[in-house]
């Protein structure tokens, strides 16, 4: 058994678990010297078995732009923009990738009995999405290796569920981004366009202060292994009551400023 696999078992990963993984390969290598991406992926798969699910975001943000400069999503060829591990994972022969032009997911295991490559909802991180299924399972966990809550994709789901005032407002108009995803299969109108996630760290800080989660380190790598059921209701309440803290400070982020100016001023 590898050292990395020992670590995964020690933090609580078990057979049948549904795992949504966010990661930094650089940080993982700082804790597990010379480990390959394939070793990371295969270690998780071996523990959870095909009775569990391994899910990773493979977002490409292929929104239609007013000036026509947008990339066109190709499910098989478009590279993931959410890290090196996700890019390797999506190309595994037994892994399925969804068709959302903006926010696709790659997954392996029992979730393949629920979704196939055709999943591309109008709410890419909300209703009928992989995230909606994931958060409603009894045995779901978020594994975060070397990243903080700026990578916490469920935060966007919480924005929709709360909802925050700007849940269906696109903050990217200044970039000429339209509420439309574009792919080789055509265009899809979107209900929500997820915005900046940098201030999700305020929710992370709240969870730490309330002892709902604990900050963990192995060598120089920070990590979380979070039971989704333990944070989803807390998260909806926090997002509903503290929406303003989820925006970057005034003047530091045009996307967050657009939301603040429209809904909070």
What is the count of helical runs? 9
Q: Tell me the domain tally.
A: 1
Shape: globular
Tell me the span between the first and last alpha carbons. Answer: 56 Å
The structural class is alpha+beta
| Poorly predicted regions | none
Percentage of residues in DSSP E strands: 15-25%
Helix content: 25-40%
In the sheet with the most strands, the strands line up as 4-5-2-1-6-10-9
Largest sheet, in brief, is: 7 strands, mixed
The average pLDDT value, as a whole number, equals 96
- SSE order in H/E notation? HEHHEEHEEHEHEEHEEHH
Total E-strand runs: 10
Rg on CA atoms, Å: 18 Å
Sum this structure up briefly.
The chain has 265 residues and is α+β, with helices and mostly antiparallel strands.
Topology (SSEs and partners):
Elements: H1 3-11, E1 18-23, H2 25-31, H3 37-48, E2 53-57, E3 63-65, H4 84-90, E4 96-97, E5 105-109, H5 130-135, E6 140-145, H6 154-161, E7 177-183, E8 186-189, H7 201-209, E9 216-218, E10 221-227, H8 228-241, H9 254-263
Parallel strand pairs: 1-2, 1-6
Antiparallel strand pairs: 2-5, 3-7, 4-5, 6-10, 7-8, 9-10
Describe the structure.
- There is one protein chain.
- The protein is α+β, with helices and mostly antiparallel strands.
- The chain has one domain.
- It is 31% helix and 18% strand.
- It is built from nine helices and ten strands.
- It has helices at residues 3-11, 25-31, 37-48, 84-90, 130-135, 154-161, 201-209, 228-241, 254-263; strands spanning 18-23, 53-57, 63-65, 96-97, 105-109, 140-145, 177-183, 186-189, 216-218, 221-227.
- The strands form two sheets. A seven-stranded mixed beta sheet has the order 4-5-2-1-6-10-9. Strands 3-7-8 form a three-stranded antiparallel beta sheet, with no helix packed on it.
- Strand 9 and strand 10 (221-227) form a beta hairpin.
- Helix 1 (3-11) crosses helix 3, helix 3 (37-48) crosses helix 4 and helix 6 packs across helix 8.
